[in-house]
């Protein structure tokens, strides 16, 4: 089998991840096989096993990439902003942008059905994303648990805006990001210390 353009000897892992991302974009995280990823990458069906035990391991590698990119994007969006509520508003906008710009990675994060405990590194990577948001949230809430509640509430709100945008319920990307940011500001500044229950 002749390797496709873009594949270079020694870069098999990246070639397989890129091929899998293309397939996820086309069919969703569960809509392809490891053999299909191999064909898309232009390598033999046996080649992936040098790096990935199975398809789930390949999806876990993509999820790790997703968490790393989220952490970098969210940290960059918050850089240079002093007000903690505004930092979380910037996070909300960056969340919507990530969901649109990196749809395949977003879908792997939330649709692959991965159990973090089964994949070393995923739990830590997810925690590192949370840690980017922890400081501003803790400035706005009096307990660590309340700060995490605030992060989850803002993230869930941003996730909803992102889903609406991707599903066509909302059409204007820029306006959707602004609405997510405004909702985050309101939650940061005015929501109660803890959610009910």
UniProtKB/TrEMBL annotation:
Keywords: DNA-binding, Transcription, Transcription regulation. PROSITE patterns: HTH_TETR_2 (PS50977). Residues 10-70 form the HTH tetR-type domain. This is TetR/AcrR family transcriptional regulator. Pfam families: TetR_C_33, TetR_N. The keyword Transcription applies. Residues 33-52 bind DNA. Transmembrane segments: none annotated. It comes from the Bacteria. Gene3D superfamilies: Tetracycline Repressor, domain 2 (1.10.357.10). InterPro entries: Homeodomain-like_sf, HTH-type_TetR-like_transc_reg, HTH_TetR, MT1864/Rv1816-like_C, Tet_transcr_reg_TetR-rel_C_sf.
